[in-house]
């Protein structure tokens, strides 16, 4: 075995505290859309990487949904071989600048880190981001060699994290890939959902450009199911296989009175106006948004955190986050909850809205809520919130943003015969991401119903592997003179 | 079929433009993929430039062989004014569609088509399709004043009768479309369905008129919208007590179920900001013209 390049003895490594990246001050950043965290500089990255105990059987890698060789890249950092380190990440992950910023590391790789048992885990996410930034700053990105080219073309529906990952993996394997995107700009939730203060748009644009540099075409303004159907993509468009990754774009509403009032937004609409349409630069940009002096965001996930922090940045004096369970049950990343608190978001926990109140112009003037108590654990394993009778109270707000979840957009399911869909509206797949229709694969939130960027990316990787196998088998069968499996009929 | 490469970074050139009225322009736009799939009742979302907002516009006509669609736009806010100032040879940044459900076209016998203002343009493809399906089509065109009456000849070509009303009496009958509709329904008891497209107050009034008479009204709702594919929920309307998204569940609904008052109030959400954008654009135009001199 190669001798460790880390000159520190394990006992010495344990004495080094986990390094922290500097950040914009909370009272400053809650008025701008610039990135919150500045990330590690080289010195801090080196110190942080040198804390790694170089486990023989690194658990961190198993915690990573795309199984990045974390131990390997951290070791390259210690050696100051940053090119080697970023390329180690790129072997498993086509979007490191994005994952280093938005992955919930604390519940994936970092929770598995051996150091975490008695000390604090390695800051794997911050190291990944450091390397992605280093790669950009020093212009280190090089296209990988494509060993073998194939004639088959693959269509990918949706240019979010799952579609981009699948596209990159297939392009690296020599397939022609076209991504179809419904909006006018690519990126999916990375573009319309995640705010710039968490994921700067130059980083997103660059990561997408790199996927395009692999030969991937991205066609915007194309709603599959409307502009062309899945069966037309197979037929006249000549695609051999299709990966569906349209995400979970249909916003849920609570179903309480007052949701049609002016001043009530789904988080999707609110965030799309700000992130995709740049309403925060109105009137330089034409899309308007209205924000009250007091704003209430409903929900406890990352989308709720994004919305409430965005509301502050748009000038809200008070931003409430209303969540029906307690802080411990919030599904948002710890870092986002922490940042929201630092920025002055007021958490109204164990509380559920019951109706939205109108002023005489049909605008929101308040939100009536009810206190909740935690009862027995429910199906999700979290304790079920139970309403406390007589505990109603009113918060004076002029804007209400609902961030209580999304389900898949139904357009493709409705226009693709033979595609099996669950009761929740998700497309049903097997573990290889194959759907009920031959040659059609699906993944990300379209199949999961609402998860994370990195799980969507893992699905994209798995699907790319399955599509390559499927097309390879078809080629093999054709080469042997057997009839190749046809794409169109269902259930063959 | 376009070569796939042509779709990358596609723009949407304006091939021809006419003014139908002082503030109403008709555009023929190259958008072959939309043209191939367009059916009466569909709309597109357009964005005129990189800082533009996304706005829905009903497709009035399409030529799938020529790869073009026709849009008719009234200059009311910043975006529509800027669009109406564009000329043939310029290009629209983004056009996506066709979106929304096409109008179900059936042979029901006799129908009335009521268009208010620029809504007449949205109604034209539906009137034509109804006529092609073998219906007897009676049309009412309403406008504020005579010079805003559009598409009268086109409507005559597909209608058994056309009545024009203007608020000020400067052309056709003086009065509202509902006055003309009352008379039409009395004269033609065989009319069973009334298609109404125009301002929300007009569609509400038409629905209020025809429902007690046992006729069905079909209205096309213009709502606040961002993506047009069911993602934002900005277009939500209450229909028969249920929340519907106009972009994917509509844009057409039976008028009797629609909560018009709620939608009328909701559509006013951005009036003051729209005025700011509009005034600012007008101010910049004046400055630019001043500089050009």
Task: Note the main attributes of this structure.
heterodimer; A: 492 residues; alpha/beta; 5-stranded parallel beta sheet; 18 strands; B: 293 residues; 5-stranded antiparallel beta sheet; 10 helices; globular; disordered N terminus
Question: In a few lines, what is going on in this structure?
Answer:
The complex is a heterodimer of chains A (492) and B (293). Chain A has 492 residues and is an alpha/beta fold.
What does this structure look like?
The complex is a heterodimer of chains A (492) and B (293). In chain A, helix 6 (82-92) packs across helix 9 and helix 7 packs antiparallel against helix 9 (124-137). In chain A, strand 12 and strand 13 (364-377) form a beta hairpin. The relative contact order of chain A is 0.12. In chain A, the strands form five sheets. Chain A has a five-stranded parallel beta sheet with strand order 5-4-3-6-18. Mean pLDDT of chain A is 93; it is low at 483-492. Helix content of chain A is 34%, strand content 16%. Chain A contains 19 helices and 18 strands. Chain A starts with 9 loop residues before the first helix and ends in a 13-residue tail after the last helix. Chain A is globular and about 70 Å long. With 492 residues, chain A is an alpha/beta fold. Chain B has 293 residues and is of the alpha/beta class. Helices cover 32% and strands 31% of the residues of chain B. Chain B is built from ten helices and 17 strands. Chain B has helices spanning 4-7, 32-37, 78-84, 119-132, 152-158, 177-187, 200-210, 246-249, 260-266, 271-292, and strands at residues 12-21, 24-30, 43-47, 55-58, 61-63, 68-74, 91-92, 94-99, 110-116, 136-143, 161-166, 173-174, 191-197, 216-220, 236-239, 242-245, 252-254. In chain B, the strands form four sheets. Chain B has a seven-stranded mixed beta sheet, sandwiched between helices. A five-stranded antiparallel beta sheet of chain B has the order 5-6-2-1-7. A three-stranded antiparallel beta sheet of chain B has the order 4-3-8. In chain B, helix 6 packs parallel to helix 7. In chain B, 48% of the residues are buried. Residues 1-6 of chain B have low confidence and may be disordered. The interface between A and B is large, with 49 and 49 residues.
